[in-house]
Amino acid sequence: GESVGLHLPTLSVQEGDNSIINCAYSNSASDYFIWYKQESGKGPQFIIDIRSNMDKRQGQRVTVLLNKTVKHLSLQIAATQPGDSAVYFCAENRGAGGTSYGKLTFGQGTILTVHP
Amino acid sequence: SQTIHQWPATLVQPVGSPLSLECTVEGTSNPNLYWYRQAAGRGLQLLFYSVGIGQISSEVPQNLSASRPQDRQFILSSKKLLLSDSGFYLCAWNPGQGEKLFFGSGTQLSVL
User: Fold this and answer.
1) What are the extents of the domains in chain A?
2) Domains within chain B, CATH numbers bracketed
3) For chain B, N or C: smaller number of CB within 10 Å?
């Protein structure tokens, strides 16, 4: 069935390093992808999104890369800080077009731990 | 600016008791509203979504129901809770035709 999954469930990095969190998706019809950060006991916070007509998008310290050929999505965090420690989720819009609205399909999540 | 409120933050309920979780959105009109559930250490599963007052779509068969009595109010209910209903419940919204979801702070429900 359709799914969005992660290659690595946990990632530990040193403060100042760059982090890369990976995500694989299986629905080739998905046209919108999004990354969320979730701190313990809180709701997910939007980080960055990308449409399928793009292969790269940059934000503040974050970059999302989309490789549609291999159905792979990654989130790069530059100069990782202790405050970046959280669970990171990728999600895809399950259907093409506007009718799917916010019916996002979420991956399992990657735990990022940043050591001072 | 738009804000979303969800309460209570934590709830401990006995098996067989009823449930009512409430979510409200401020600063917008005609939002799409969603209820997600997150099991411990897992991703988010969509339970219900609503595109308007009284319009509820269920994504998975379950012991829960949802209602939207007002434009910016979304309620998650159960008549009799099961142990398997335990989890972290998240309300979310987005503008009509929007895709980016904005989440509330969540309710940690423990059914004992």
Assistant:
1) 4-96+105-115
2) 3-111 (2.60.40.10)
3) N
When CB atoms are compared, the residue of A42, A93, A108 closest to B99 is: A93
Can you name the residues that pair with A32 across neighbouring β-strands? A51
pLDDT digits (tens, 9 = 90+) for A72-116: 999 999 999 999 999 999 999 865 444 455 678 888 899 999 999
In chain A, whose CA is at the least distance from the CA of B5?
A43
Strand partners, A5: A24
Count other Cβ atoms within 10 Å, centred on residue A14.
9
Phi, psi (rounded to 5 degrees) for A84: -85, -10
State which residue of chain A sits closest to B93, comparing Cα positions.
A102
Q: What tokens were used for B74?
A: 């979304």
- Encoded tokens for B96: 């009509």
Contact A3, A91 (CB under 8 A): no
